[in-house]
């Protein structure tokens, strides 16, 4: 038997025909444009007069949610309010809730969502300025101005790009606020039972469910200061600052382990799942929780 006629043990015997060619693999048909309904939450400042408006339009396979919002604003409704900038997931400004999940509108393909109706809502836990735009100032208020603005990457690099002798990759966090919105403690959906004394060494510090930090509708009132959790993003930034400036340990831990800090975290891990850049805020929070110092241990 020639080598050409040999088969692997257990494989079916096949006699090749003279001049035969491999059968072509059928290519999957190209995805076509579809007509979808885009359901957008509309409201004024603070969520006043909230409602949903539907927009029916043809969506191409390459269209992102942001592309579709731009089309609606230009062609149909110039009053639509949302925030965007880079269009390639570097700035984080277009974060919103898409079909109930925190995502970046610029890199979320409409047809990949697989639904005939795509629902768009603003991020939770941050005050609504109008429609899909939220006020990011409450988040940044807990990130001190003297902390490093541009920082090295959170995790070690996997390699040096081809043709580059040396480089520093900057951190992955794009400060989009998705983790703040997803956190059940911050957004008021925490339904875990109160921690018991046997839960952990920090259980005495863990509170019961806290209200969401959005101001009341048509009101300037905010939640009491002692009910506020500063949230995953500021605590992740604080942990990175601790790594850069160990000499400031006590000062930083006084914030991280203070009345608005890590003690409020219930370990839902929703913040890490929501992050579009692969940052794990929950790990940063647990790092702070395990540290000694700040006058709180």
Structural description of this entry:
- With 297 residues, the protein is an alpha+beta fold.
- Helices cover 21% and strands 12% of the residues.
- The strands form 2 sheets. The protein has a 5-stranded mixed β-sheet.
- The longest helix has 13 residues, at 232-244.
- The chain is globular.
Features:
5-stranded mixed β-sheet, Ubiquitin-like (UB roll), globular, 297 residues, two-stranded antiparallel sheet, succinate dehydrogenase (quinone) activity, 2 domains, 2Fe-2S, alpha+beta, metal ion binding, 4Fe4S_Fe_S_CS
Task: Please summarize what this structure is.
The chain is of the alpha+beta class and 297 residues long. The chain is 21% helix and 12% strand. The relative contact order is 0.12.
Q: Tell me, rounded to a whole number, the average pLDDT.
A: 81
Largest sheet: 5 strands, mixed
CATH class of the largest domain: Mainly Alpha
- SSE series: EEHEEEEEHHHHHHH
Spatial order of the strands forming the largest sheet = 2-1-5-3-4
Number of helices: 8
Low-confidence stretches: 1-11, 197-226
Shape: globular
Number of strands: 7
CATH-scheme architecture of the largest domain? Orthogonal Bundle
The rounded Rg comes to: 25 Å
> Roughly how much helix do the residues carry, as a percent range?
10-25%
Return the CATH topology of the largest domain.
Fumarate Reductase Iron-sulfur Protein, Chain B, domain 2
- The assigned structural class equals alpha+beta
Strand content: 5-15%
Distance between the termini: 79 Å
Number of individual domains: 2
């Amino acid at each position: 038997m020639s080598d050409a006629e040999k088969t692997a043990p257990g494989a079916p015997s096949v006699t090749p025909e003279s001049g035969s060619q491999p059968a072509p693999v059928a290519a999957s048909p190209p995805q076509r444009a579809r007509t979808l309904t885009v359901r957008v939450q509309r409201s004024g400042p603070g969520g006043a007069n909230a409602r949903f408006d539907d927009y029916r339009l043809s969506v191409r396979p390459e269209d992102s949610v942001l592309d579709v919002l731009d089309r609606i604003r230009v062609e149909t409704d110039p009053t639509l309010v949302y925030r965007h900038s880079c269009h390639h997931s570097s700035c984080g400004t277009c974060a919103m809730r898409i079909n109930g999940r925190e995502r970046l509108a610029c890199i979320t393909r409409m047809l990949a969502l697989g639904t005939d109706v795509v629902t768009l809502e603003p991020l939770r836990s941050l005050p609504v300025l109008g429609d899909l735009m939220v006020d990011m100032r409450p988040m940044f208020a807990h990130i001190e101005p003297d902390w490093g603005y541009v920082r090295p990457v959170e995790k070690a690099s996997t390699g040096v790009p081809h043709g580059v002798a040396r480089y520093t990759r900057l951190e992955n966090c794009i400060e989009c606020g998705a983790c703040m919105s997803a956190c059940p403690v911050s957004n008021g959906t925490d339904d875990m039972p109160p921690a018991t004394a046997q839960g952990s060494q920090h259980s005495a510090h863990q509170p019961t469910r806290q209200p969401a930090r959005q101001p009341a509708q048509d009101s300037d009132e905010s939640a009491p200061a002692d009910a506020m959790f500063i949230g995953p993003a500021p605590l992740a930034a604080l942990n990175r600052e601790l790594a850069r400036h160990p000499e400031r340990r006590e000062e930083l831990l006084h914030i991280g382990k203070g009345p608005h800090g890590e003690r409020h975290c219930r370990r839902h891990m929703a913040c890490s799942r929501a992050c579009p850049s692969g940052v794990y805020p929950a790990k940063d929070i647990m790092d702070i929780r395990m540290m000694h110092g700040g006058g709180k241990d």
